[in-house]
Specification:
The strands form six sheets. The chain has a four-stranded antiparallel beta sheet with strand order 1-3-2-4, with helices on one face. It has helices at 3-44, 72-83, 119-139, 146-153, 160-166, 177-200, 210-214, 235-240, 255-279, 286-299, 301-311, 315-321, 329-346, 348-352, 377-384, 388-394, 400-403, 425-432, 454-460, 465-472, 541-547, 552-558, 590-596, 601-607; strands at 48-49, 89-94, 101-106, 170-174, 365-370, 414-418, 436-440, 443-447, 485-489, 495-499, 508-509, 515-516, 531-534, 572-575, 581-583, 621-623. The chain has 24 helices and 16 strands. With 630 residues, it is of the alpha+beta class. It starts with a helix and ends in a 7-residue tail after the last strand. Helix 2 (72-83) packs across helix 6. The chain has five domains: 88-174, no CATH class; 178-352, Lysozyme, CATH 1.10.530; 365-440 and 499-516, no CATH class; 443-493, Membrane-bound Lytic Murein Transglycosylase D, Chain A (Roll); 531-623, Membrane-bound Lytic Murein Transglycosylase D, Chain A.
Amino acid sequence: MNALAKRENKLVTSKQCSSAVVIKIKFLTSLFGFILLLFAAGSAHSATSLTKPVAQYTLQCDETFSCPESLLPRVSFWVEVFSRWDTDTAIFHDKSNPQRVYSTLKRNEGCRRSRKGDSVYKERRRLKRNLTALADRLRNKQGLSESQARLYAAFHGASSREVRAAADRVRCQSGNKDRMREALTQFHNYRPTILDALESQNLTPELQYLPFVESAFNPNALSHVGAAGLWQIMPSTGRSLGLMVDNNVDERYDPRAATYAAAKYFRDSVDRLTETAFENGSSVQAKELNPFVITSYNYGVRGMQRAINQVGLDYERLLVEYKSPSFQTAVKNFYASFLAARHVAKNSEKFFGVIAPNYSQQLNSYNTVALTRATSAKRLISELGLDKDKFKALNPALKKVIWKHKALIPKGFALKLPYRENGWENQFMQLASLPREVERPGFTWHRVRSGQTACGIAEKYRASCRALRKLNRLDSKATIFVGKRLKVPSRSGGGIEVVKGSGTATPKVAAATPVNVSQPQVAPPSVSSLKRYRVRRGDTSCVIAQRFGMRCGEFLALNGLKRSSVIRIGQTVRVSGKDSWHVVKRGQTACGIAQSYRVPCADLLDANRIRRSSTIRVGQRLRIPVATSG
């Protein structure tokens, strides 16, 4: 065989080998694709129809919280969310009728982090198709398949129009059973503090169950919208309630501070909503007002004031008639979920058996030091001989930047230290003689000039471009503008410096008595008295209200006036402080209450626009007047 023939023969053999390899690769690819299809098919059918419907529960309702008949199916659904399904279960149900559950799906994150094309997305689409097909068969009066009949059973004979509308209301809700079980073990750690805080503001102790809904009693909880802590308080709300919320300290994570702030919120909510209801001519009873107070924690007090102005003090009307772009599913379910969590917590043995409380995180007592100068955690741990873990546990409001020795504990912060019978005064006298500490920023400022880029600036300062982008919150393209000031991270990363030769006076130290976590720190509201005021030249209703620390609407309601009413010089009107209220208790009468406050019964009846024959109810709030000349 000549050389050319040999070369052609070798070429043919090479092509045959290549073809064999290609065929083998195609086969393996097809096999792998087939396996993926089988897996996907199995995943697509992992959702299961609900075989056991949502049960009905008898709630323990009283004169404090109402349980409207129309709300009970909604509450029953939430009872089962808290007691039947774990967080790895996605529950598909009707948004407007939550108790109408179609199917459940096992998924590690329940409904959370769902994306287009995943199992939650596909199950929602499948249910929508099935409901639409069911509606078509009902409209055309065609027979139903076995699966369609099971699906239609959840509608209890509803029309095809209602079934078609339900196709657009399929909602996914994650279960909560395992979180509820864990919350019950932590409940007793925080219950004494919560009860004391509520009592200090003259509030019903039943509010103690709300953290089951908000955070499942996790003091470190943080929502995707920025609500934090045991009571899930937003940053701006926390500041308005007196909490310290900044880059170094966040008292929303301090269960005690957050609890007293939440109690303060509820006190304000009760007062303002009472005033609004009173202004609208409603007699205020606890069981009618409290659903609005609870909902205000999710929707805001102003939102509930608008709702009362529109539908009155009727919660059932609120759910059906009140219209607002922000009054959506989560708000409508909030009071129902509270009643459900309260029911499960009060009957925990029935749902979970005996649950042993976990007291490992309970902090029984401590001393409090009011810092008169900023101090580092590192210095305190070193000089006072503190255990770092216990010190951190006592001060959960201090953020990571402080524990990383990048910032100081600010002046004025109420520092908690392990309890000592003799306190910490001597140790802080020694601390005061040490040089002052100051924070050194972890960046330098640079003003952008023409032609500069973010990474070019970082390179000039020998800094990381990625760190510069993150520090200045730049977009993915690191867009900057001429004249803009940029923070350029320093190589040292910032920290704390000691100023030599400096010393300060001794910080004030709290008394050496223990501070128990159950001891209230907020004084109960005082009962101020009504009095009479004679209108002078230049007075208006709102000017008089402001002069006596009242809201304008409260002044108008107290005097039976409207915004359009004219007051005249020499006219006598009533004025009061905002806390002149009495909550009716069992067995009390209007005149008996008046006698206990040493006021004429006629004055009390007049101030509340009621008659001697009127019936007052437990939980109703009455104004307490004292007729004095003004």
